[in-house]
Amino acid sequence: MSNDGYTRRGVLKTGLGAAAGSLLVTTPAHASPAAGPLKLWYDRPAAAWLEALPVGCGRLGAMVFGGVATERLQLNEDSIWAGGPHDYDNPEALAALPEIRRLVWEDKWQAAQNLADEKFLGKPSEQAPYQVLGDLTLTFPGAAEFTEYRRELDLSRAVTTVTYVRDGVRHTREVFASNPDQVVVVRHTADKPGSVTFQAAFTSPQASSTSSAGRDSIALDGVSTDTQGLKGEVRFRALARARTRGGAVRTDGGTLIVEGADEVTLLISMGSSYRSYKDVGGDPAEVAGRHLTRAGGQPYEVLKRKHVRDYQRLFGRLDIDLGTSEAAALPTDQRIARKQLDTDPGLAALYYQFGRYLLISSSRSPGYAANLQGIWNDSLTPAWESKYTININCEMNYWPAAPANLVECMDPLFDLIKDLAETGARTAATQYGAKGWVAHHNTDGWRGTAPVDFAFYGVWPTGGAWLCLMLWEHYLYTGDERRLREHFPLIKGSVEFFLDTLQTDPRSGYLVTNPSHSPEVGHHEDGGENVSICAGPTMDMQILRDLFGAFGEASEILGVEAEMRAKAADARSRLVPNQIGHLGQIQEWQEDYRGDAALSRSRHISHLWGLFPGHQIDPRLSPDLAAAARRTLELRGEAGAGWSLAWKINFWARLLDAPEAYKRLSNLLLPARTAPNMFDLHPPFQIDGNFGGTSGITEMLLQSHGDQVHLLPALPAAWPAGSIRGFRARGGFEVDLSWSGGALTRGRIRSDLGRRLTLRTGAPVTVTSGGRPVTVSRPEPNVVVLNTHRGTLYDLTPSP
């Protein structure tokens, strides 16, 4: 077998075992095997950043352009942030808080929002940007003409390759970022001895200098920029070292010179002085030098083998086949430009696996959580500072992690939450006079948790609460009580904050947040100003309902905090319920505001949080609310960024509406929303759309909320036949499926935890294990319930 999940005859391995032979799907003869369903490929070099191909190992990233006369490797190290350690909290905020709340109670929204702008925002009111390190440029001598060009990213191995013929010599260049060895590796070979000659040099828009670092190495040293009056304090170093077979290598004033080599291995190492959000006293030269020395002592073949093995341990857990067509033989940019997902189902599968590739590449330990652009950024001032926007975007990055069988990739996010619990405790005390911890709608490398930007966007206190629910999701998928016990203090701290700060609405009697808003959406024009500030918006209530519920369940599982559990349950019962407004929509606010607010076309649809990622709105359990959610989506319209379209895929899938979910996926994969290199476009680039789209495809094929596992719940007509292997479901289940004619033909479920399984299918199924019938109950049509045993496989076939 080849190592990319396919046999030499182009047959997809399903992973369902020998008994699943009927599930094998043969690639049609007219599809080009060279194109490969797990490869992005192109017939020309990248002319722009959004055409370059990303590689990454969590901490390090590079964008590979695949040039011939010059090769540009744009480099990132994930701890390079402008500014330095800083406390964003505003000491004036606490004194202003009672007045802000009073103005909100009296519907004096503009006055409340103005006071929040003046007294409640952090200092400074803007956070720091994530920044580029620089470029390494390889310059090749001779004529620029070339033939037989091909550039690709092999998702099965996480290796980019460019090949071309120049002056009668075939050149091949491979690039990958190694997590085991923490270096970016470039390998250039030629089919004629002595044909590899180039010069390599670093450049950077940062304040920096270049130098030779020995006979075969060059260095780039720099420091991040100042921002918002904060001095840039993150120092960094990049090193590049060449190892050649044949020829010669030398350096001259910071330029690396390779002449007449048969082949060259170039190792790129990066390090910074950033140790944590409060410590930038590290030695970047030591970090970069240590990794370079270790990697430099290993042959290229060993470096590559370790990288591929490490990567495939994660990536190889899951296969997805949605069918193929002649379009699969086209370069990837041409497939996107065709705007014909209906005739290219393999593009959706490629997009799905690309999302998994990006998560593995941008969120691994050691390394920090994936930010708005993952790790890939070529600017000192990227859009939205490439921060962590925690009113949707950061969480969306991790929606596919557990269901797409990459739960380890959540670890850097958990590290971020731990940091925020520390800084957020300071914010809770300073700005609210409260216990516990809080984080608002944005954070950065300095882990700011105070409100930032403007009051219209920033005075939203439930960002930390939402992040805590990601900790709970980890437990729902894994059943890992050790990690739950580790994470429980973070969840408890968030609950403490809200138990301390929730207010009783003098008109409704409900417990509500005040001040807050429905993220980035105004509810009135007040005195000519669009205002968002309010009390008890629907999203807050939905998040807190789930937070208090998760806390209660976790405390019972761990046998702790019984008294606080009762308080949380009481508070949960007093939150504003989901309500249906005058247009038949889910109300976005506690009151049923009319006019422009009810007809907003904002890309944010925060009041459907309870539909997805929550599950408070369910077509089966709450049909009235589900109908109102549908109406909400119709009223909101199609306006929206890539991430917003991605969220809508998930919404429509949860409503079990396959045509509408598929329509949004098709719109997401148009050139206006997906770049030639498959990066999501806001525009510009934001990686959350990639991850949200990956999550949406999962929700179309498998759902596991509400104590049920639902197979093929929103399967579109465009995917009449296919298979999946290795999807994960809540409750500790791993799921393999195949289908034909739009109906399940066979499946296999592995129970990792031995828990009770409620399984919903489109038609009745028979359950066996080891060839023997399994006793099930059938409480309603197309539902089976069975007690599972840990580590046991259960086979599903359509009932006669």
From TrEMBL:
Region forming the signal peptide: 1-31
Enzyme class label: hydrolase
Domain Glycosyl hydrolase family 95 N-terminal: 40-276
Boundaries of every Glycosyl hydrolase family 95 catalytic domain copy: 300-701
GO terms classed as biological process: carbohydrate metabolic process
UniProt-listed Enzyme Commission number(s): 3.2.1.51
A Pfam family recorded for this sequence: Glyco_hyd_65N_2
Keywords tagged on the record: Glycosidase, Hydrolase, Signal
GO MF, one annotated term: alpha-L-fucosidase activity
The protein, known as: Alpha-L-fucosidase 2
Species of the source: Nonomuraea jabiensis
Species lineage: Bacteria, Bacillati, Actinomycetota, Actinomycetes, Streptosporangiales
